[in-house]
Specification:
The N and C termini lie far apart (about 50 Å). The protein has two domains: about 130 residues, Rossmann fold, CATH 3.40.50.1360; about 60 residues, Alpha-Beta Plaits. By secondary structure, the protein is α/β, with parallel strands linked by helices. The N terminus is likely disordered. It has a six-stranded mixed β-sheet, sandwiched between helices. The protein has a four-stranded antiparallel β-sheet with strand order 8-9-7-10. It is built from seven helices and 13 strands.
Length: about 250
């Protein structure tokens, strides 16, 4: 590295410490995610019985919940997954995998979020499963959102907002988003489980999430967007350096 040659061993020592700080930060995030997942299981455990149906989201935090659930040996009817990736994680667990069309409703839906605000409105879809996630959330009696404290924001939109679109409409929708003040970016090489494409909107002003959710979904070709305001979380389980907090409105 040229900086090492120019400044000597002192900078080399500084560089190594930066590297270790990044490693420790990443480990801390995973620890927090796991603690939030454990707390979610602890909360629903007293309510599980042989008729209970769980909805399972998609993403790294949800994967920790799947791990905890798989080793718990709890008795319940089964799970409905929001993505093929989550479904794959259950194949070797012995837990029944169900389909939404075959059940009346979901008792508990457990999922993470890319952002959430004080009203428990969310941005989701970093993993590309936003449409199925929203369907399961709307079909659930209670939505538990498991996050670490880095996901809290005063105003939604710092995280790029994903929208799932039909392929034929991608360019037309991108032009519409530009006119609305956002900077759309096609998620190249990614196809959703529904066979559609994703546009991520950067620098997008979301003053009223409920209204923006409706407005984006009114654009022809938009399948769904990642704002969860019409069906926001009922409970947010947030892991911090000082422990895990269970938040309700």
């Amino acid at each position: 590295m040229p900086f090492i040659i120019l400044f000597g061993d002192r900078l080399l020592y500084f560089e190594v410490n930066i590297y270790h700080s990044i490693q420790n930060y990443s480990m801390d995030q995973n620890i927090k995610k796991k603690e939030a997942a454990k707390k979610a299981l602890e909360l629903i455990m007293p309510h599980l019985n042989e008729d209970t149906i769980l909805g399972i989201g998609t993403g790294s935090t949800t994967n920790f919940f799947i791990e905890e659930l798989a080793k718990s040996n709890l008795i319940f009817k089964g799970v409905i997954c929001s993505s093929e990736a989550s479904k794959e994680n259950f194949l070797s667990t012995g837990i029944n995998i169900l389909e939404l069309n075959d059940v009346y409703s979901i008792d508990f839906y457990i999922d993470g979020a890319d952002e959430y605000n004080s009203r428990f409105e969310l941005i989701k879809g970093g993993g590309g499963a936003l449409t199925r996630e929203k369907i399961l959330a709307h079909s659930s009696e209670k939505f538990l959102c498991i996050v670490d404290d880095s996901k809290l924001t005063e105003h939604l939109g710092k995280f790029p907002l994903p929208i799932e679109v039909l392929e034929i409409s991608r360019s037309a929708i991108s032009r519409k988003i530009l006119k609305m003040g956002g900077k759309p970016k096609y998620r190249s090489g990614f196809v959703t489980d529904n066979g559609n494409q994703i546009i991520d909107i950067n620098n997008f002003k979301i003053d009223v999430p409920y209204d923006m959710e409706n407005l984006l979904n009114s654009i022809p070709g938009v399948v769904e967007n990642g704002i969860f305001s019409k069906r926001k979380a009922d409970v947010v389980i947030e892991a911090t350096n000082k422990g895990t907090r269970v938040k309700t409105l």
